[in-house]
Amino acid sequence: MAVYTTAAEEEAYFTTRLNTTPYDDATTADKLAARTMATKAFEQLNYVGEMADEDQDLQFPRGDDTAIPQVIKDACCEEMLNLLDGADPQIEFENLGLVSERYANINARHDPTSPSEHIAAGITSVTAWRLLLPFLRDGRAIRVERIS
After folding, report:
1. Are 74 and 13 contacting, i.e. CB atoms less than 8 angstroms apart?
2. Does residue 96 register a pLDDT over 80?
3. How many CB atoms lie within 10 A of CB 71?
4. Can you list the pairs that 93-96 forms with residues at least 24 positions away whose Cβ atoms lie under 8 Å?
5. pTM score, two decimals?
6. Domain regions of the chain by residue span
């Protein structure tokens, strides 16, 4: 399967970021699994514009671009880091409706009427989501085409 980053690109990214222990301690197999999961999650999103080549394997590059933008690769690294740190997209999604949770003297309360947009979209990392946002179509917008 095609993926958004290579091991070398990830190594370069993580040398410029703090708190990378989950990535640093991960096995090669786990890094590949996280890279694949992040790519699959990114592929499910609705991006602005069209793919650069209709036969390409991934959603990027788009438009006139000839390469995957660095910001998309950075987002992939951030999502990988979160996945390697134990984030589970399924559990995160199931917890969207959680109203209240108590453990000892700690209470957590969530508002199910305003779910985390990134979690609902299948992205566990808010940092990755913020990097992806400029490339996404407005999910609330309706596209109307006139048929002649």
Report:
1. yes
2. no
3. 12
4. 93/119, 93/120, 93/122, 95/119, 96/120
5. 0.81
6. 7-134
Q: CB neighbours of 125 closer than 8 A, spacing ≥ 6?
A: 75, 78, 79, 81, 82, 87, 118
Question: What distances in angstroms separate CA 35 from CA 1, 64, 81, 82, 124, one per listed residue?
Answer: 10, 25, 9, 11, 13
Residue 46 DSSP class: -
**69, 58 Cβ separation under 8 angstroms:** no
CA 34 – CA 40 distance, rounded (Å):
10
| d(C-alpha 21, C-alpha 84), whole Å | 9
Collapsing DSSP to helix, strand or coil, 80 comes out as helix
Tokens of 82: 């979160």
Which residues, at least 6 apart from 53, have a Cβ–Cβ distance to it below 8 Å? none
3-state DSSP assignment of residue 119? helix
**Is the pLDDT score of 106 beyond 90?**
no
> Tens digits of per-residue pLDDT, 25-68?
999 999 999 999 999 999 999 999 999 999 999 999 999 999 99
Determine contact, residues 147/136, Cβ cutoff 8 Å: no
